[in-house]
Design goal:
The structure is a single chain. With about 240 residues, the protein is of the alpha/beta class. It has 2 domains: about 120 residues, 3-Layer(aba) Sandwich (D-Maltodextrin-Binding Protein, domain 2); about 80 residues, 3-Layer(aba) Sandwich (D-Maltodextrin-Binding Protein, domain 2). Helices cover about 35% and strands about 20% of the residues. A 3-stranded parallel beta sheet has the order 2-1-3, sandwiched between helices. The chain has a 3-stranded antiparallel beta sheet with strand order 8-5-9, with helices on both faces. A two-stranded antiparallel sheet has the order 4-10. It is elongated. The protein starts with a helix and ends with a helix. About 5% of the residues have low confidence.
């Protein structure tokens, strides 16, 4: 074989290997997606209504329903594991869980240690008013926020006074909440945007085939998310 033919042969071999490599991407180093087809999906649950809701029986919540449907598409069933956020994400980091859900967003510092899907739902927060009300300036105004909602900090940063309530739907004054909830309450959303969160689901580090499959599933649900959240709140 002369030098020209040798170079051509090497080039053809390299291209063939490149094509073969691309055909098998993305990969799961720990073969998580392949394993899930043969066993229950180990799902870490972090309580965070309406995303994950603890009940006396089967767990409920928007992300619980999403993962239940995703598992069904893969021909398996979820195996639920309750715990705190750090505990669950540490287990995920060491491949003891396959997925962790709990209203996580892309602001989590755990992105250095575990994998995440692409953001699948953007949750925007505004100040809103009951029908017929008007608000010129939020500064100095009392604004109701449900207890435990971190958006209260954003309200205070605007110079408003936060009133913490159990249920914002019973308030007859300015309210700060997610847009999907304000719409459900039939409140009028003002131009006072407070925050915007991108929701994600956590997976083990490096398991790219699993992330791709889950991303594809979540993409098909993107237009349903607002309605799913409103339905979950209506069940309370």
């Amino acid at each position: 074989m002369n030098q020209m033919n040798l170079k051509r042969s090497i080039l053809i071999t390299f291209l063939a290997l490149s094509v073969f490599g691309c055909a098998t991407l993305p990969r799961d180093p720990k073969e998580t997606l392949r394993q899930i087809h043969a066993r229950p999906m180990r799902v870490g649950l972090v309580e965070h209504p309406p995303w994950v809701v603890r009940t006396n029986g089967e767990p409920a919540g928007v992300e619980v329903d999403l993962i239940r449907n995703f598992a069904s598409e893969l021909g398996t069933t979820p195996d639920w594991h309750w715990g705190g956020e750090q505990e669950q994400l540490e287990a995920l980091q060491h491949y003891q869980l396959d997925v962790v859900i709990g209203g996580l967003t892309d602001r989590t510092p755990w992105s250095k240690y575990v994998g995440f899907t692409s953001p699948y739902f953007k949750e925007t927060y505004h100040v809103a008013l009951p029908p017929g009300s008007q608000l010129q300036n939020i500064k100095g105004t009392e604004v109701s926020v449900e207890k435990g909602d971190p958006v209260a900090a954003e309200v205070e940063s605007k110079g408003a006074r936060v009133v913490r309530v159990d249920d914002s739907s019973n308030v007859n004054g300015p309210v700060a909440a997610a847009d999907w909830k304000l719409e459900q309450m039939s409140f009028t959303v003002t131009n006072e945007e407070l925050d915007s969160l991108q929701h994600v689901i956590a997976v083990p580090p490096g398991e790219n085939a699993l992330v791709k499959r889950l991303d594809e599933f979540l993409y098909t649900k993107r237009f349903e998310m607002k309605g799913l959240l409103q339905q979950q709140v209506a069940k309370r």
